[in-house]
């Protein structure tokens, strides 16, 4: 009775502030503590405190039939007092948290350590550096620029790490933001049916307030807590709160408590909302979890009990501690007696509202194994195909890099020690130790450089960019991706198990054939041809025995089809009533939902629905409808042409099946039988004995409902089959209907050797004598199975699990499943990729899925396959590019270091290649749009290596070509270009032209290899479709431009230095002048002399003209004098130039070789206007 005292405590608390609770007859706290009770306890409490549920409605000022008045002030007041139906979401991770997560990458950690060591060493200048007697080995030919800029290397590595981290974090952040936007969009779209002012309206879930009368039906996820007022056969799956998968039957007198977050598995009804948002049961648990796992993790570390110190945002200021108390009791009452919820369990629940759906439907097969349960609660299946392969590859590359770098360091150290102490017989002097250490450190850095080059750090980036880009684009193709890896797993799918209704078909049901009064009509019969008695029974049977939420509304636009709302099969039947020129509304008005005596709702076991009503003479009539072969078995009479029942023997039934039902089914129609039965008023039948009640029926008619195949589906299925994906249809329909639709879709072709089984037959074949499922038996069936008809959700799950666990093929199958119903949850979770229907799908199905099809269309699945394959290919393209760079760079660095004690490619240059080229290349190659050709090949499968033979051939071929060129340039380049050799240059020499040529060649080869990398299947034309990807073109051209600018030596860019500054003659260094002397030969000198004389003449004439003009205008003399002085200085220059001993053009011409004669003349003329 702790709860009683609890609620007393609340009510006392409430009285202190009854200023705003007094409006209504009960406070929020009382209602909340009431909702914590279960079953009989709750019934007793309601009786003791309130009387009955109607009394609670009165206290909440609402009517069980009319609902709330729905006026704005009233709704506002309720929101203030009882809170809003909104649970504040978990705080998103901050950008810094995401940065910290991105930093955990192993590759990045290696790089960071290397960078920090490199930075530290660049600032360390040991003593004794200038001691001549210490060593003679070239310390890796480090020039002054590099010595001073030693820190650049470390800084550049760090910069590359920061870039990768920021990009990754930004990607995660935008992904999180997108996903939140998406969640809120889904939440806004989530509507719930309530009654307001006597009208049934659909309102957003967040608008529901305490006191609302909500209509609940099959497939709903309850949005708030409430009390059951009235309904039929309502069964709820409360496992998301209690962890028990048994369905709980709800009734006013036994268990009226309906809790938020639970799923309606069967039936329909009404409830009065009693608690919303943070005060509902789900809200309390969410608040306890701190709406997330952070506090939980902290507490697990400290070992603190769950409910401690967490303030509940109680909507009306009740003390937080009470809230925690109540939450604890709620968990205890929720059949978790230990008060301390198992952390992993609650976490799984909180992440996955559909953890409930892992309800192990195959108890017999798996024995409800505890391990399985644990596995089921884990968030997702094993690693995705690509992730697994990439991890393996990264580890292999890392190992190879380590080995190479270790060998490099060992060779360098050995070479140095042998050369210094053995060949040159130098003693080890104590003052030389720091110098030797510096050499060793230098070698270590070269080793680290080799390692850094070996590790493809662009890879994580390429994967992230590729996935993020694809997910964004897939939204346009009606694929809403909930789990990123699903996108790429889809590319490897080998099997798709699809629903029929709504996915392959349009889900717009229309009755096209009927069998009424012993006549089979091939089209809608004329109303006059049907007996009036039969017609009345038919209209009543259809209007009353269907969910009242199902209606046919007038079309939105002129000339469009009428809108179908609710269950589509029932819409088809109601449409049939309208086609017979009858109306169902008056029937429903006369017999409102509250007056229905008993309802047996449709479920996957019954395959039928029945409604019992009380007739005016106190007797009962039951209307029944359902799958024709099931309902006809229960019929013992049938109405004849005159509307009179006649005997209907099993023999007649068989004939009817042959002559009516099979032909309808073979046309791809669903056959539905409508029947009725009358019961006497006394004795009243035992309504719970279903087998006796649903028997001895009288058949009214059988109708054939057409659900046309979507026009784009056959082509989509043909594409799948061409792409090596088997499409299987799993449906609840009759086998003939299913077969006919499968042929129309192209899933099976007449004359082929394929299996079409019914659920029963399938189960018989896969189970042994004890009724246990055997994998070997499934393996015999699934490869040929194409259609599974009359299947239960369990059959679907069994099939999916059987295909995934099968070892029948060398590759493990990758299975995608589509589902829309609540009961498809287990199959969707078990599959590698679960597709839920965005329109027809229930909340449960969406929750269990990986991708939501926003248009419910099968052809969108084909788009998902295309995008998935594109992701895989993009990563492969990038790998092909990256590994070529890495192989070449590592070998060049390694051999260079071993032969010349210095890597021809400096660390900073390597990082430019690694960082910029990789990052940009990953962007360029990861954003290639998918093409239809992706669907022309078979899936790769799980065991196929990431680097195919063709790719290997490309990588090695290109590497050999690049290495040949680079080594040729390294060893004979100076002879080819007649330049100084950069090899074995002394310490602190400036960067040589020789090595710059090597670096430039290397980068250009990578750049063009990027274009080669666009094709990985050995296609000849690498330029095919290159302009369809503007990002690629921009990046290639951009990288080219930057490379060109980066490698022009600064000395050549004189204009950068000399902007706005006169050079004094003394500033020109001797060497430069001497160089000029060498460069200008005699012929050139003669040529120059001619030019100079010509200039002199020109200058004199110009000056004279100017002097004359000045005299004419009588202006001051100064202008002319100024001109004169400039001309004098020019003639001095010319004198300099013409003297043969030293040729030097100092001021007027920046460099004699760099300006052609014409330009020189031009500059001269400018000097003298």
UniProtKB/TrEMBL annotation:
A GO CC annotation given for this chain: glutamatergic synapse
Start and end residues of each stretch annotated as Disordered: 1-24, 296-375, 1128-1169
Cellular compartment(s): Cell membrane; Membrane
Catalysed reactions, semicolon-separated: Ca(2+)(in) + ATP + H2O = Ca(2+)(out) + ADP + phosphate + H(+)
Signal peptide: none
Gene3D superfamilies: Calcium-transporting ATPase, cytoplasmic domain N, Calcium-transporting ATPase, cytoplasmic transduction domain A, Calcium-transporting ATPase, transmembrane domain, HAD superfamily/HAD-like
InterPro entries in UniProt: ATP_Ca_trans_C, ATPase_P-typ_cation-transptr_C, ATPase_P-typ_cation-transptr_N, ATPase_P-typ_cyto_dom_N, ATPase_P-typ_P_site, ATPase_P-typ_TM_dom_sf, ATPase_P-typ_transduc_dom_A_sf, ATPase_P-type_domA
Topology in the lipid bilayer: Multi-pass membrane protein
Comp. bias intervals (Polar residues): 1-13, 323-332, 1128-1153
Transmembrane regions: 98-121, 151-170, 402-423, 443-469, 955-972, 1030-1048
GO biological process terms, semicolon-separated: regulation of cytosolic calcium ion concentration
Molecular functions (GO terms): ATP binding; ATP hydrolysis activity; calmodulin binding; metal ion binding; P-type calcium transporter activity; PDZ domain binding
E.C. no: 7.2.2.10
Annotated keywords: ATP-binding, Calcium, Calcium transport, Calmodulin-binding, Cell membrane, Ion transport, Magnesium, Membrane, Metal-binding, Nucleotide-binding, Phosphoprotein, Translocase, Transmembrane, Transmembrane helix, Transport
Bias kind Basic and acidic residues: ranges: 296-308
Organism domain of life: Eukaryota
Domain Cation-transporting P-type ATPase N-terminal: 47-123
Family: Belongs to the cation transport ATPase (P-type) (TC 3.A.3) family. Type IIB subfamily.
Function: Catalyzes the hydrolysis of ATP coupled with the transport of calcium.
PANTHER family: CATION TRANSPORTING ATPASE, PLASMA MEMBRANE CALCIUM-TRANSPORTING ATPASE 2
Protein name as it appears in the record: Calcium-transporting ATPase
Species this protein is from: Panthera pardus
Gene name in the database record: ATP2B2
């Amino acid at each position: 009775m702790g709860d009683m005292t609890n609620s007393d405590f609340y009510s006392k608390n409430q009285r202190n502030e009854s200023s705003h609770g007094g409006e209504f007859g009960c406070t929020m706290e009382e209602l909340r503590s009431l909702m914590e009770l279960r079953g009989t306890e709750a019934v007793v409490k309601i009786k003791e405190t309130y009387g009955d549920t109607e009394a609670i409605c009165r206290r909440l000022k609402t009517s069980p039939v009319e609902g709330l008045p729905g006026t704005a002030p009233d709704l506002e007041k309720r929101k203030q007092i009882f809170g809003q139906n909104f649970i504040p979401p978990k705080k998103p991770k901050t950008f810094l948290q995401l940065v910290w997560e991105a930093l955990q990458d192993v590759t990045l950690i290696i790089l960071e350590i290397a960078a920090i060591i490199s930075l530290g060493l660049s600032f360390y200048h040991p003593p004794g550096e200038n001691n001549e007697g210490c060593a003679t080995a070239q310390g890796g030919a480090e020039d002054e620029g590099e010595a001073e800029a030693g820190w650049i290397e470390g800084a550049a590595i760090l910069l590359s790490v920061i870039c990768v981290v920021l990009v990754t974090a930004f990607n995660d952040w935008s992904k999180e933001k997108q996903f939140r936007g998406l969640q809120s969009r889904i939440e806004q779209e989530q509507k719930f049916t309530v009654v307001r002012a006597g009208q049934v309206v659909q309102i957003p879930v967040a608008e529901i307030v305490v006191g609302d009368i909500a209509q609940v039906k099959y497939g709903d996820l309850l949005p708030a807590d409430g009390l059951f007022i009235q309904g039929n056969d309502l069964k709820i799956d409360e496992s998301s709160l209690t962890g028990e998968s048994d369905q709980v039957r709800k009734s006013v007198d036994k268990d009226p408590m309906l809790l938020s977050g639970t799923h309606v598995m069967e039936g329909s009804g009404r409830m009065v909302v009693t608690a919303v948002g943070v005060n509902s049961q789900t809200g309390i648990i969410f608040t306890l979890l701190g709406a997330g796992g952070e506090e939980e993790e902290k507490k697990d570390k400290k070992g603190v009990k769950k409910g401690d110190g967490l303030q509940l945002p109680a909507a009306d200021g009740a003390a937080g501690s009470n809230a925690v108390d109540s939450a604890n009791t709620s968990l205890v009452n929720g059949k978790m007696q230990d008060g301390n919820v198992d952390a992993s369990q609650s976490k799984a629940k909180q992440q996955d509202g559909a953890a409930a759906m892992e309800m192990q439907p195959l108890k017999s097969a798996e024995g409800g194994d505890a391990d399985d349960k644990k596995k089921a609660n884990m968030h997702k299946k094993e690693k995705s195909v690509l992730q697994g392969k990439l991890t393996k590859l990264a580890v292999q590359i890392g190992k190879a890099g380590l080995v190479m770098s270790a060998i490099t360091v060992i060779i360098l150290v050995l070479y140095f020690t042998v050369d210094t102490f053995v060949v040159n017989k130098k003693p080890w002097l104590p003052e030389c130790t720091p110098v030797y250490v510096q050499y060793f450190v230098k070698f270590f850095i070269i080793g680290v450089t080799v390692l850094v080059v070996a590790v493809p750090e662009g890879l994580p980036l390429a994967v992230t960019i590729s996935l993020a880009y694809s997910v964004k684009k897939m939204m346009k193709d009606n694929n809403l991706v909930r789990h990123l890896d699903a996108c790429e797993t889809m590319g490897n799918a080998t099997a798709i198990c699809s629903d029929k209704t709504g996915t392959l078909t349009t889900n717009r049901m229309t009755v096209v054939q009927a069998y009424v009064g012993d006549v089979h009509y091939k089209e809608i019969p004329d109303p006059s041809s049907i007996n009036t008695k039969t017609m009345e029974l038919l209209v009543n049977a259809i209007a009353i025995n269907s969910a009242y939420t199902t209606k046919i509304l007038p079309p939105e636009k002129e000339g469009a089809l009428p809108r179908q709302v609710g269950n589509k099969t029932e819409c088809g039947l109601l449409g049939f009533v309208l086609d017979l020129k009858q109306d169902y509304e008056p029937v429903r008005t006369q017999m409102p939902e509250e007056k229905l005596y008993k309802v047996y709702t449709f479920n996957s076991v019954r395959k039928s629905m029945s409604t019992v009503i009380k007739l005016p003479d106190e007797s009962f009539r039951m209307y029944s409808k359902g799958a024709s072969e099931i309902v006809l078995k229960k019929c013992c009479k049938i109405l004849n042409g005159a509307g009179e029942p006649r005997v209907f023997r099993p023999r007649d039934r068989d004939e009817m099946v042959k002559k009516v039902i099979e032909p309808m089914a073979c046309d791809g129609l669903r056959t539905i039988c409508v029947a009725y039965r009358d019961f006497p008023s006394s004795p009243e039948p035992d309504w719970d004995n279903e087998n006796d009640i649903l028997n001895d029926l009288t058949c009214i008619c059988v109708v054939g409902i057409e659900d046309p195949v979507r026009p784009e589906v056959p082509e989509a299925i043909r594409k799948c089959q061409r792409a090596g994906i088997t499409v299987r249809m799993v449906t609840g329909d009759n086998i003939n209907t299913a077969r006919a639709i499968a042929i129309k879709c192209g899933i099976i072709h007449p004359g082929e050797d394929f299996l079409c089984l019914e659920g029963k037959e399938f189960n018989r074949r896969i189970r042994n004598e004890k009724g246990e499922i055997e994998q070997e038996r499934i393996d015999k069936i699934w490869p040929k199975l194409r259609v599974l008809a009359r299947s239960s959700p369990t059959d679907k799950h069994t099939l999916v699990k059987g295909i995934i666990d099968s070892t029948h093929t060398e590759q493990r199958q990758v299975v995608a499943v589509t589902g829309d119903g609540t009961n498809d949850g287990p199959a969707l979770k078990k599959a590698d990729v679960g597709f839920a229907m965005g329109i027809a799908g229930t909340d449960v199905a969406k929750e269990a899925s990986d991708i939501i099809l926003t248009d419910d269309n099968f052809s969108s699945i084909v788009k998902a396959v295309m995008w998935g394959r594109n992701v895989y290919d993009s990563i492969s393209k990038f790998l092909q590019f990256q590994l070529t760079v890495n192989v070449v760079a590592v070998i060049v660095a390694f051999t260079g270091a071993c032969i010349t004690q210095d890597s021809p490619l400096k660390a900073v240059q390597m990082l430019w290649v690694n960082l910029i080229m990789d990052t940009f290349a990953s962007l360029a190659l990861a954003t290639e749009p998918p093409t239809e050709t992706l669907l022309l090949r078979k899936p790769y499968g799980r065991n196929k290596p990431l680097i195919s033979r063709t790719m290997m051939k490309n990588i090695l071929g290109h590497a050999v070509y690049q290495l040949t060129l680079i080594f040729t340039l390294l060893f004979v380049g100076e002879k080819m270009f007649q330049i100084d050799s950069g090899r074995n240059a002394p310490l602190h020499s400036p960067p040589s032209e020789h090595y710059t040529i090597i670096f430039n060649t290397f980068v250009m080869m990578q750049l063009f290899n990027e274009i080669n990398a666009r094709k990985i299947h050995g296609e000849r034309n690498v330029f095919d479709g290159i302009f369809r990807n503007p990002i690629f073109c921009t990046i290639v051209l951009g990288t080219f431009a930057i490379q060109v600018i980066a490698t022009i030596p600064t000395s050549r860019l004189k204009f950068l230095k000399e902007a706005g500054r006169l050079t004094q003659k003394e500033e020109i260094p001797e060497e430069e002048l001497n160089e000029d002397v060498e460069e200008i030969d005699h012929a050139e000198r003669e040529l120059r002399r001619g030019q100079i004389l010509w200039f002199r003449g020109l200058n004199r004439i110009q000056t004279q003209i100017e002097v004359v003009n000045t005299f004419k205008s009588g202006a001051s003399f100064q202008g002319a004098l100024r001109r004169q002085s400039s001309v004098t200085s020019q003639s001095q220059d010319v004198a300099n130039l013409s003297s043969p001993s030293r040729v030097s053009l100092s001021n007027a011409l920046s460099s004699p070789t760099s300006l052609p004669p014409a330009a020189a003349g031009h500059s001269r003329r400018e000097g003298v206007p």
